[in-house]
Design a protein that fits this description.
single chain; about 325 residues; mainly alpha; 12 helices; globular
Length: about 325
């Protein structure tokens, strides 16, 4: 089976599986009264979304993981054992972060509020999982302290500092991906575009494991977007956003260029920076730099519709993906 055919097949299967599973999940979550609670400090018009089923990330998580494992066994296990191991480790890393999100979502429902685990608890768990992921990659020889610089053929050996930086990068990207899940379809569309990029790069570079993960993410995100586009009928919750952030960051490591995630995930980075700047400036001056953080809420407060923000931020992600292509 050619790389392109594999990519198309897993994308299509992931798409239809997600559509069917999410369709069944919506009434089930409503029956269980697993509806989103909206913070009072958020945009007032978001109160209309109160009660929308959340934890919908399970709708694409299950097909993405199942199909990735199936195609991994079929395409990799007997002939490319190292790639198969890398694929398994990346899936385990994504699932572990999804578990943190699931626990966070579940805690919100039990407390009947929009705050689950504390930020410190989430970061601690994510740090443990990120360090474990990096340690396993090192043990199996999938990473080294050397890293290529984007837009050049220069490799730099960072020594032990690489693993410190890589752990911060992973935790940061996962949390920044979570921040994009603030308006209808934004996190889903961003993951769809980044998944498409990694799938294409996997084909061009002959990385079958990246083809599998990129295709599964593309199909799953697109299938979920049918229900998550404005006005959303279901939210992915932290279960989905943390899963996607970890999975896509892992794809960058599988391509051997961890810094790629800073380009393809440019929206993640901007959302995260906007929060850091907002908090820092407010603590120093007592004034807000943005009308509201993260960044997409600032533009909402400026009068942009959710669809307009989605369109502009999608273009920004596409530009980041183009930059990553030339960086390689």
């Amino acid at each position: 089976m050619s790389s392109f055919v594999s990519y198309v097949l897993i994308s299509v299967l992931s798409f239809f599986s997600t559509v069917l599973l999410t369709k069944a999940l919506i009434p089930y979550l409503r029956y269980k009264k697993m509806g989103q609670r909206i913070l009072e400090i958020g945009p007032r018009w978001h109160k209309n979304k109160e009660g929308t089923p959340t934890m919908g990330g399970l709708g694409f998580l299950i097909p993405t993981v199942s199909l990735s494992l199936l195609f991994g066994v079929f395409l990799l296990k007997g002939v490319q054992k190292d790639e198969f191991r890398f694929l398994i480790l990346t899936l385990l890393y994504a699932i572990s972060n999804a578990a943190v999100g699931f626990l966070d979502d579940l805690t919100k429902f039990r407390k009947k509020q929009n705050e689950g685990l504390t930020p410190r608890q989430k970061v601690l768990l994510q740090t443990v999982f990120s360090i474990s992921y990096l340690a396993l990659l090192r043990i199996f020889g999938f990473v080294s302290s050397s890293m290529p610089l984007p837009f050049s053929s220069i490799w730099i050996d960072f020594g032990l500092g690489f693993y410190f930086f890589a752990a911060i990068l992973l935790v940061g990207v996962v949390n920044c991906a979570n921040l994009t899940d603030g308006i209808d379809g934004l996190a889903t569309t961003t993951a769809f575009l980044i998944g498409a990029f990694f799938g294409v790069m996997g084909i061009l570079r002959g990385e079958t494991s990246v083809i599998i993960l990129g295709g599964a993410t593309l199909g799953g995100s697109l299938g979920f977007l049918i229900y998550n586009f404005h006005p959303a009928r279901i939210f992915m919750g932290d279960t989905g956003s943390l899963f996607l952030g970890a999975l896509l960051a892992g794809c960058a490591f599988q391509l051997g260029s961890p810094l790629l995630i800073l380009l393809v995930g440019v929206l993640y980075i901007l959302e995260g920076i906007s929060v850091i700047l907002q908090v820092t400036v407010f603590r120093l001056t007592g004034k807000r730099l943005f009308r509201m953080a993260p960044l997409h809420h600032h533009f909402e407060k400026c009068g942009w519709s959710e669809v307009k923000i989605l369109g502009v931020f999608s273009i920004l992600t596409l530009i980041g993906c183009m930059g990553a292509y030339f960086a390689l």
